Each structure stands twice: as structure tokens, then as C-alpha cells.
Amino acid sequence: MFDYIKGVITYLNPEYVVIENNGIGYQLFTPNPYVFTINPKADVTIYTYHYVREDVIALYGFASREEKGLFTKLLSVSGIGPKGALAILASGNPVQLVQAIEEENEKFLVKFPGVGKKTARQMILDLKGKLHDVLPGAVPDLFTDVERLDAVTSESEALDEAVEALKVLGYAEREINKVIPDLMKEKLTTDQYIKKALQKLLK
Predict the structure, then answer these.
(1) In this structure, is the dihedral angle defined by the CA atoms of residues 126, 130, 135 and 137, taken in order, positive or negative?
(2) I need a surface site. Which of 14, 68, 81, 150 has the fewest CB within 10 A?
(3) Is 136 found in the same domain as 166?
(4) Least confident of 26-35, 116-125, 133-142
(5) Counting Cβ atoms within 10 Å, is residue 15 exposed (0-12), middle (13-18) or buried (19+)?
């Protein structure tokens, strides 16, 4: 129904962003809202997926068509819903995900929140050999392609936001607490904290 929305980001939190276009604010649930930045002077294009079920109507937003394509493929897997698909994409490394599916690497796939052995096996059965059209050849980190403006929050606020985002993705507080000491060693943006934490949590 909607392919993309172009407008300005007016609000974001760990679960979603609001993009305004022609006076209408669209709520878009995204893998990592902090790849976007609130800036009323900068237009942003977000690729959308309109999710409709009997009890749910929602818009999901992505920084690229490739990311949207992967989300759509993940939704076709039995046992994976929108929230689970977003958590998987939030790792920020789609190439690694595709490689794990192609190589039948269940050990890597079960590291994602909400993905057990049964779901990992289902991902392999349903998606192996079917992702080349989404990621033809080598694809760079999708999240690095989004233009980032200077961080407007302090280091502590950025880390707090990252922790909240990780909780939304399904990580337990005890898991998050294990990586916080390493995160505190550097001054990063919220997006960078999230990506670094996910790299450590997926090891």
C-alpha cells in the first residue's frame, strides 16, 4: 500500500519514530530508531511495510529497500512475527544473517532474541536459497548508509537510550548488564552503543 514516506522526523523512542509528511505524523516501528535523528530541516525517506491482521494494523519503517525486503522474508517464516523480525534486523549485519541461513548455522541464529532451535531450523528451511534477490552480492552494513547528524544527547543519555532499546528488542537485563562495562569505555551515539552491544551479545 505504501512504498515509502518522505518527510521530517519529529519524534523517536526505542520502539518507533514519527515522520511528518503534509501535516500528518506517521508512526513507524523500526529495527533501530536511533539511525534517524530529529531535525525539522532535513527530509528523510523511510521505506514502509503496511502490516494488517485482524487485531493489528501497523506501519513498519526501514532505512533501505534491502532491509525492508529482509523483513518481509522473515515474516514469511512460521514462528516469526513483526517484533521478532525487527529484533533480528537490529543486529545491523544483514550479510551475516544471510550467510548463517545459507550455511545452516543454527548456532548463530539462536543468538537472536526469541529465536530457538525450532525457529532457527524453520528460517533455514523457508529462506535458504531465497534471499539472493534481496541482497544480490556483497551488501554493506545497511545502517551505515543512513546519513547521521551530530549527536544531540549526552553520553549518559545515549547509553540509557541504548539500554532501553535493547530491552525492547527482548534482551534480559542480566545480559545487558554484562556488556555495559565495555560500552562505558567509549563515548558513542545511541545508535553506535546499540550496534556495539549487539555485536557483543551475538558472540
Answers:
(1) positive
(2) 150
(3) no
(4) 133-142
(5) middle
